[in-house]
């Protein structure tokens, strides 16, 4: 019995999951010989051997149920003796051909990214906020009297229109929009991403470099902010950014409107 079980763990296998979680199998696409088929709201995977790194990667796929594959495509749950089904008789395709990643053009800090598949949905577990968008003036006013120990864990990026994005924890107790982060992906507090996608894959698809911040906004827009745009939040750095924003001339559109 032990020999049969050991063979089953490393031999042919298959897995079934909901079709809505299709993007979650992206981390498996380069596994040699891995095939996929879909239909009736389900997605099936199969491969010749269940060996590392497959166990760890498949464990990260939401709702995936693994089977041992026997003669004639019979499916048996690990630890069971009797088959509980059979592999679907549909067209099977290599996963690396079925799921092709399309990289987006590298964008400037703050440029919108239009082609990102995951969407925001309300709900999910409560998570601590680690990113704040607010006005640069408001952030500068707080930083002017904040203790050094409160500024030390923070960095910020300033935009030409006088907005500030603060990254770190704990965040300043000032008005603004708060986000929780998974690696370097920022999601509005009270929301979650559906379907779940690995943060590194989202960055790669958006054309961002490691360390850049990918920000999802409640209005559906997505921004990529380069890591070099963030600077350490010292009193001097925040004050200089606020003064530079005040000295910056008004946009051409606003000046024209004032003469009408």
Task: Give structural attributes.
8 helices, disordered N terminus, 7-stranded antiparallel sheet, elongated, 9-stranded mixed sheet, alpha+beta
Oligomer: single chain
Estimate the global geometry from the Cα principal axes. elongated
Biggest sheet architecture: 9 strands, mixed
Question: What value does the Rg take, in angstroms?
Answer: 25 Å
What are the secondary-structure elements, in order, as H or E?
HEEEHEEEEHEEEHHEEEEEHEEEHH
* Lateral strand order in the biggest sheet: 8-17-16-14-13-10-12-11-18
Quickly give the structural class.
Answer: alpha+beta
Number of strands: 18
Average pLDDT number: 81
Distance separating the two termini: 88 Å
Total count of domains: 2
Total of helices: 8
Low-confidence stretches: 1-8, 253-260
Could you estimate the helical fraction of the residues in percent?
10-25%
Percentage of residues in strands: 25-35%
């Amino acid at each position: 019995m032990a020999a049969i079980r050991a063979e089953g763990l490393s031999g042919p296998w298959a897995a079934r999951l909901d079709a809505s979680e299709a993007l979650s199998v992206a981390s498996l696409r380069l596994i040699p010989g891995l095939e996929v088929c879909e239909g009736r709201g389900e997605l099936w995977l199969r491969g010749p051997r269940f060996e590392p790194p497959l166990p760890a990667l498949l464990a990260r796929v939401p709702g995936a149920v693994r089977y041992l594959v026997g003669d004639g495509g019979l499916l048996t749950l690990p630890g069971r003796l009797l088959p509980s089904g059979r592999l679907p008789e549909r067209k099977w395709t290599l996963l690396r051909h079925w799921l092709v990643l399309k990289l987006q053009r590298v964008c400037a800090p703050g440029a919108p990214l239009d082609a990102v598949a995951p969407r925001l949905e309300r709900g999910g577990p409560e998570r601590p906020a680690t990113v704040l968008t607010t006005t640069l003036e408001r952030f500068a006013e707080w930083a002017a009297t904040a203790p050094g120990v409160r500024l030390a864990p923070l960095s910020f990026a300033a935009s030409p229109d006088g907005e500030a994005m603060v990254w770190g924890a704990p965040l300043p107790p000032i008005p603004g929009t708060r986000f929780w982060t998974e690696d370097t992906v920022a999601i509005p507090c009270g929301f979650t991403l559906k379907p779940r996608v690995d943060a590194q894959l989202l960055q790669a698809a958006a054309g961002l470099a490691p360390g850049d911040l990918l920000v999802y906004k409640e209005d559906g827009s997505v921004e990529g902010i380069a890591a070099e745009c963030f600077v350490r939040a010292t009193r001097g750095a925040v004050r200089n950014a606020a003064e530079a924003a005040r000295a910056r001339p008004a946009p051409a559109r606003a000046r024209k409107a004032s003469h009408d």
